[in-house]
Write a structure and sequence with these properties.
The chain is of the alpha/beta class. The protein has two domains: about 170 residues, Periplasmic binding protein-like II (D-Maltodextrin-Binding Protein, domain 2); about 140 residues, 3-Layer(aba) Sandwich (D-Maltodextrin-Binding Protein, domain 2), CATH 3.40.190.10. About 35% of the residues lie in helices and about 20% in strands. The protein contains 13 helices and ten strands. Strands 1, 2, 3, 4, 5, 6, 7, 8, 9 and 10 form a ten-stranded mixed beta sheet that branches. Strand 1, helix 3 and strand 2 form a beta-alpha-beta unit. The protein starts with 9 loop residues before the first helix and ends in a 6-residue tail after the last helix.
Length: about 325
């Protein structure tokens, strides 16, 4: 028998159950009043966190007896480990990190019981520097001070793959920092690093901040030419994706970047009913999520496929998709 991975205030729940029983409510109804959901997201400078906060608010309002909260984390790797360990209920992740998690590869020492609820939006790799560093290509980062993303993030996973595709050894060829996007922007402004990697939705607030900084000319490095090498080594996870010049301040041309899909994930032991309810809420309250961040407009039934998800779907999600006439293949 499996149960949803939910943290409940047991003492409060027991007292509530006794109180409600006196009024004719069943124990299951009483327990429903104390259901809590933890949503693990990312750093405050990215897109996961505001979207996670929006999702928490929507689930709290929509699912009876549920209190959902969003938590700041290091990112995808940390989220997947938390979901696998049962210390969180719903998590945001990039597909490349998720694929490693279910295979026990990369930063994961064992296979994790992870399932996809929904494919949500593509994360775009930003390779960022400023005009004064003289860096024009990923290869020219050799010998420079570069942040590859915070520990526990999928930014770090993908940054290493981009560097390797460009012929660089991340451990030997750069002076490596491991900062989140907000910290990377601050370090770039202060001249403490020469460039950084960030994988996120468009626009990412911290990158917008750097682009709008007076007396600073932000430069986004083209790297879509590396996608073929990345896919040859790691599977068909990545796509060439432009960042339009209008997305960030001060850009004179579209940036030739790369992307990978994001997914919402849960533990395989989550009940089918709860997985169904969360999936249904995500799709049927999509407009509310779009009001939080426009990347939510990419949450579409037509994007739900095994090729995009990389991780098997939860049966509860598949039930919702089937009701909508979507056959996930």
């Amino acid at each position: 028998m499996t149960f949803p991975i939910l943290r409940k205030h047991f003492a409060l729940g027991a007292a509530l159950a006794l109180g409600l029983a006196a009024f004719g409510f069943s124990g299951s109804e009483a327990r429903a009043q104390s259901q809590q959901l933890s949503i693990v997201t990312g750093g405050t400078g990215g897109v996961y966190y505001p979207l996670g906060g929006g999702l928490a608010n929507i689930l709290t309002k929509t699912l009876a007896g549920t209190q959902a909260t969003a938590e700041v984390t290091g990112g995808s790797v940390d989220n997947l480990k938390a979901i696998g360990a049962g210390s969180a209920d719903v998590g945001f992740s990039m597909v490349d990190a998720g694929t490693d998690a279910i295979n026990g590869a990369g930063k994961f020492s064992s296979k994790l019981p992870i399932r996809t609820l929904a494919v949500i939006y593509p994360n775009v790799m930003h390779v960022v520097t400023t005009e004064n560093t003289g860096i024009n290509t990923v290869a020219e980062m050799k010998g420079k001070r570069i942040s590859t993303g915070s520990p526990g993030s999928a930014t770090e996973v993908m940054a290493v793959r981009v560097l390797e595709a460009a012929g660089l050894d991340p451990e030997k060829d750069i002076t490596r920092a491991r900062l989140g996007v907000a910290e990377s922007v601050s370090a770039q402004k202060d001249g403490k690093i020469d460039g950084f990697f960030w994988v996120g939705g468009l626009p990412t607030a911290a990158i917008t901040d750097l682009g709008a900084t007076p007396n600073t000319k932000m430069k986004l490095i083209d790297h879509s030419d590396l996608v073929e090498k990345m896919n040859a080594k790691h599977g068909k996870l990545y796509a060439a994706t432009p960042i339009a010049k209008s997305v960030y301040p001060g850009q004179g041309a579209d940036n030739k970047a790369s992307s990978v899909w994001n997914v919402l994930v849960v533990n395989a032991s989550m009940t089918d009913q709860l997985a169904y309810d969360i999936t249904k809420t995500v799709f049927e309250k999509r407009d509310d999520l779009i009001a939080v961040h426009k990347e939510a407009s990419n949450i579409k039934l037509e994007n739900q496929s095994l090729a995009n998800a990389g991780i098997p779907f939860h049966p509860g999600s598949l039930k919702y998709f089937a009701e909508k006439g979507v056959k996930v293949e």
